[in-house]
Amino acid sequence: MKPRHEPQGWSALQPPPGYYSADGRPPDAMRRALILDWAVSQRIASGWRMESRSETQVVMVRGRP
Questions:
Q1: What is the pLDDT of residues 24-65, one digit of tens each?
Q2: What pLDDT sits at residue 9?
Q3: How far apart are CA 32 and CA 22, in angstroms?
Q4: Closest of 62, 35, 42, 40 to residue 53, by C-alpha
Q5: Cα 56 to Cα 33: distance, rounded to the nearest angstrom
Q6: pLDDT the model gives residue 24
Q7: Is this structure's pTM higher than 0.70?
Q8: Would residue 11 be called left, alpha or beta, if left means φ above 0 and alpha means ψ between -120 and 50 degrees?
Q9: 3-state DSSP: the chain helix, strand, coil percent, rounded to 5?
Q10: Which one, of 42, 39, 40, 47, lies nearest residue 7 by Cα?
Q11: What single-letter DSSP state applies at residue 58?
């Protein structure tokens, strides 16, 4: 199988600063929603588009419609 080059903007996103609280607890529902908004905006800025979205998940694609 021929190795493929990773497209620009394909790499995994790291969680934003403040994702975990000081005591290591995972974020609450409101913070998770804000983090999802942040992640979507990062991907859109690098050329992705959103196909569908629910409260907790997003389907994003890259390329022609």
A1: 787 888 888 888 898 899 889 888 999 999 988 999 998 877
A2: 54
A3: 16
A4: 40
A5: 7
A6: 76
A7: no
A8: beta
A9: 25, 15, 60
A10: 47
A11: E
Q: Work out the number of other CB atoms within 10 angstroms of the CB of residue 64.
A: 5
- Record the tokens describing residue 37, joined without a space: 């908004």
How many residues make up the chain in this entry? Answer: 65
CB within 8 Å of 62: residues ≥ 6 apart: 7, 9, 10, 47, 48, 49
Structure tokens at 27: 């974020």
Q: Which amino acid is at 22?
A: A
Residue with tokens 């690098």: 46
Tokens 């609450």 label which residue?
Answer: 28
